[in-house]
Every structure is written in C-alpha cells, then in structure tokens.
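Blackboard transcription, Thursday session:
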Amino acid sequence: MKQLMIGNAAVARGAYEAGVRVVASYPGTPSTEITEVMATFPKEDVYVEWSPNEKVACEVAIGASIGGARAMTCCKHVGLNVMADPLFTASYTGVGGGLVIAVADDPGMHSSQNEQDSRHYAQAAKLPMLEPADSAECLAYTKAAFALSEEYDTPILLRLSTRVSHSQSLIETADRTDVGLKDYEKNIAKYVMMPANAKKRHIDVENRMAALASFAETTDLNVITATEKTVGGKKIGVITDGIADMYAHEALGDNVSYCKLGMVYPLPTEKLRAFAAQCDEVYVIEELDPVIENHCRTIGLSVHGKECFTLLGEYTPAMIASVILGQAPAACASIDAIPNRPPVMCAGCPHRGTFYVLKKLGLTVSGDIGCYTLGAVAPLASVDTTVCMGASVSGALGMAKARGDAFAKKLVSVIGDSTFMHSGITGLIDIVYNQGINTVIILDNSITGMTGHQDNPTTGKTIRGEATKQVDLLALCHAVGIDHVTVADPFDVKAFEAAVKEALALDAPAVVIAQRPCALLKTVKYTGHCTVSDDCRKCGLCMKLGCPAISRTENGAIVIDENQCNGCGLCVGICPFHAIRKVEN
Amino acid sequence: MNTTTNIMIVGVGGQGTLLASRILGNVLVHEGYDVKVSEVHGMSQRGGSVVTYVKYGEKVYSPIIGEGEADIILAFEQLEAYRALPYLKKDGIMIAGTQCIDPMPVITGAAKYPEKLFEKIEKEATLIAADAIGMAKQAGTIKAANVVLIGILARRTSIKKETWLEILKTTVPAKFLDVNLAAFEAGYQYQD
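(Written on the board underneath:)
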C-alpha cells in the first residue's frame, strides 16, 4: 500500500529493508529524523545510538562495518565536517559490511550556519555519492547504496537536502532482507592505515573510482529522457540532480530532454557527451555549487550553468521556467510592508533567564549552536559570536588570550548540555591546560532542544528511552581541572546573577551550570498563567525578557496573553513593583 | 505546465498546522492522488512563521508552491494570512482564522501589528474568515481550532465528508476524537 513519508523516514525504511544492523548519528537538522525513525525498528534487528558527536558516530559505524555488519551514520552538512577525519581514511580501508553515510544539506539555510555543498566531499574523499529526489528514491537509493558499498568495497555517501528530507511523498515498503553478519577476519593490510599499507590501499581507491566511473556510464541511477520537441526552435537538454530535477520537470514538462543524475560522484563522461550531442542547448540545473557544471566543462561540453542560475539558496520551478522558457512568473497580489516573524525562544524557555542576566551585566557572550543562538535576537541581543559546535568555549579562550584578563572578566561562553558533550569539553580542557581564566556557562536544559528533543549523554536515557549511566557535568568539569563549578537556576535571577559575577571575579577558570529543563519537555509541568495588576507602572522591564506572551498595548499598558503564557513565572520575579502575579487556571 | 491542486497552510509555530497538514495529506492519499507535503522543521518553528505546502493531482513533481500558484490558503493567523497572499492564485480562496499573534518586532515596539488586514485581503481574493478559536472553544477545546479550519476547507473540496471523518478517526488520538469531530462539524457547517 502506498503511504506518505518524509524523505528522512524513507531513508530509514530503506536502510532497514537493506538489513542495516548498526546506526550511529548525532542529531542535526535536516537529517535528524532518519535516526529517530531507525530507533522505531525492533532492537533485535538494529542497534541505534545517539553518539556524542559526528566523528564518534562515524567511527562507530566504521567499526560496525569492519565487524561485518551493514552500518549507517547520518548527519547534516556541517556534521560531515566533524566526521571528515575518519571518513577520508575509511575511504582507504573500504568496508566489511556495507557502510552508508547519509548527509543532508540545507540550501536556503532554514536551520544552519552555512550553505556548504556536500558534493565536494565525495570528490575530496574519493567516495561515490547518490542523490535521491523524492521519498521513493530515498528508499530505493539507500538500498542501492548498501549493495554498491559492498560490491565496490567503499563507504558511500547519500546526499539529501532539506526539501527532500522534509517533504512527504508516496512510497511503498517491502520486507527486510536479513543479510546477516559477515565473518570477521583480521586483515592488517586493509584495516591498519599506516603508510606502507595506505600506499597500497590508495592504488585500490583509484582503481575503485575508475570502476565506479564506468558504472556511472551504464547505471539506471543516471536516467536520460529524450524528446524531439523544441523550445524557440531549439532542442533543449537539462542536466539535473536531486530536488532540482523535480523543479525542472514541473517547470519544463516534456518540452525538453532530461539527464537526471542519481549518482553525483563519480559523474559519467560518455553518457553526458552523448546527451549533449542530441541537444542544441544544454543547461545544468543544480542547487548551490557548479559541481556538475564544472565536470561538463572539464569534459569539453558547452553548457549553461551558474551564469543563469544562482549559487545562493533554493531553486524554484518559476526560476527555471523564467530562465529556459522566458516565462513570466504567475500573476499575484502585492502586499504592503509588514513586520516579519522571526523565531523566538518559547514561553517558559530557561535560556531567557540566562540571557536576561548576561545582557543586564553587559557581558561579551561567545555563543554556540542550539536554541540559545536565539539569544542574539532582539530584545535580548546578548550573543556576540556563533561559529560552530563547541566554538563558544575555545573561541572565548582565543578572545581572552588576544585581549587580556580584563576582557576575559567581562566575557562568558554559553553552550548547551548536548553541544558541550559534542565538542565543548575539549575547549574546556584547553582553557585549563593553557591557564585561561574564562567563565563557561553550560546551559543544561536536560535535552538536545533545537533539533526536537533528542537524548544525549547527560540525560540518562538512550535513543530508545532506556535508562543508562548519566554523565555528571559537575564531576566532569571538576575532573578536567576546573576548581570552581557552581550550579544555578537561571529563573532564580538574583542567585544566577551572583553566580556569574562570582565566577567572573576569579583569576581562574570557572564553570556555571545553568540548570533548568526545556519548557517543552513532557516532564516539565508549569501551570496557570501570569497576569498584570493595577500596580504596574508601565516601566517595561518585563518587556526586556522578549517573552512572546508579554506585550504592550497602544495606551502603554502591559498585557500578558494567557493563551501563550505557560505560567513559568520568570516575569513575576523580574517586576520591581510586584505587579505581575501568577494565577492558576 | 503540470497541473496540480495546491493548498498552502500558514500560521505560527505551535498553532497546530502540522496536524492539519497530516489530516489533509492522509485524505488525499486515501482518494488515490499523487501527493506531496512539504514543510520545514527546525529553527523557523520556534514561534516563527510556518508554511506547509500540500500539492496533489495525477502526478506531482515539485513539493513547493510559488507565488501566484496556490488554489487555497488555509491561514491560522491574520498577519500570516496577509503575508501569504502573494502565493494565492488570482481566483484563489483564502480561508483564515481571526486570531492575531504579535510577532517579536511588535512585542518590542519596533513595529505595529498592521490593521484591516482582512479588508486588504478581500480586495484581492475570496476570503472566508472564521473565529476558529471561538468555534473550537464551543466544541470543547481551543486546541481544536486547527480542525475547525480543516472542516471549513473540507467543504470547499470535492472530497466526500465521510472520507474526512474516517481519516480524522485514524489521525487524531482516540481520547480527543469526539471534540475534534465536533470541531470539524462546526467548520464544515460554517458559512461566512
């Protein structure tokens, strides 16, 4: 029976049907649901884990593959940077059981800090890469990827994008094939990558990629659909990959010929030459970088590419229809300028108390990746920097070394519990080792928040919700050599402010653990709502919290929307006139 | 050009647009259409504008809807209804809840919540406005406002009422079924 499924769930389904036995990932939008859906399959069939970071996840998957199991790791585009080290060498070792690395790019940066194109990694690491365009292909290509991985003794990349990962389209499921565990054999020449062995393996890698380049000429993953129709008297051909193929089909219908590349590395040569030879004009339609276009030029084809289509963001059918058919966009109403609606911290968010204090103290805030990146948005506008996972800690050490101790005493790092586990701990060790005096605030909200509530090593639960040993943040910070570690509740604003001031005053490194769970967790039960009494002097201090439930009316009065307020009570403690109180519903 | 029917669902993160798109998607699959439903998860949903595209027909390629391409827009909030207006076809229908939620620039005083948005929409399109929250409250809970809007939408499609009810029964948790059926009925009977 056909059913609607997001691309990510279809990848998980494909891996399951292909007999995957081990899946290890770190969450990252837009890839997260692949691993979440994997954990809904029976644990007798597949072991699934959230790893502390993508490098660890990739190594777990590599180990499982060497151990003879079909294995997969999933990440977002920037997660691939973190796992690049093991990945590039796993290219040399090859695989035992099939090994698939699913990576989801985010053109348009719906939820990311950059717009990098993962296809470059396939070329750089010398790994094949498949790219599905809808959910049915997500399922089919994932299964194909496992087979290719074993046939060519190579890890294989599966490239997704936000629109493929998060769009639902129809799929049909099949039963799982139990491929079993391959026998484990000690093979030093293949799996110990010291120079003498790696030199020999590099030859195997080049031979493999040559074989895969031949495969690219004949595989059904690369499909040509030719037409004799013309546009403006010319036979037009388009070369596409991924979601861009869907946009092209919608825009151009059967008026042009298509060469859809389901395998984006290595790319075919003769197939593309033969396709181009049938057309008067050829366009390459690919989001982000000119990867296919550059290949076409290298093999001597004259194509239109990025001079017609942007390097930035997502494409649309209208954009393609405009360039190739010269078609005007559909008529539509124009609207007056209106306020935008940026994302905000939720009502009851524990980070609101933290940033209220940091802003009040006028501190420089070295930020990180998570919901708390929203601490950079007005009215809190507290965060100064955000680069990548973990950079809040190490980056702040660099700032302090550049500008001196006086600056360091007005500087804090903010990093979530999951991000701290991911790569904040190494930065903290650097601070201890190299005698920094930085203050690091760990925003412990008891969950990985931004990606939609995944457990992590500090939550005491596995991906399947089973109880496990919990990393003790306090003991961990002590163990690496931080003598001053305090725990404070960011909603107890006075105590939290005092804890931050105390930490900053020291001539030694310090950690403040800001502990309060995410307001959206099922275990968090705020009740009632807050309301403003006649004692309000309209000073507007509560407005500085940036709470979506608090607003000011045209006559200047402060009102709290009881539908939005969850009764967290942060504003009650902030009001200097005790004009806000909580009422039970 | 490929022909599909295009429905956009717009609102603010947390308003229940996801359930609405799930019900609609399941109804369309049941009817045997090719269907694509596209929404973006992640940062945009932290109280920001949320947009879901639902497309169906004999064959659907692109999962996204461009400006001037939506047959129907189902809006959960007034400002988001107006923001989505350019996506509506010239003869399209806007179904909008009357709820207003201040965005952060309005809360901070950097901007004012625009006035007379529905009047502006009516100049450009057929508008069906409804107090979905009030209707849902009468049905039993304001949380069913999304299902009220689905009820209004259902009446404007060619799909049988029984199909919608059947899908509601399989999509909504059993303990909330009665209130959701009442909310759907209120929407279905609603005349602007």
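Lecturer's comment: Chain B has eight helices and six strands.
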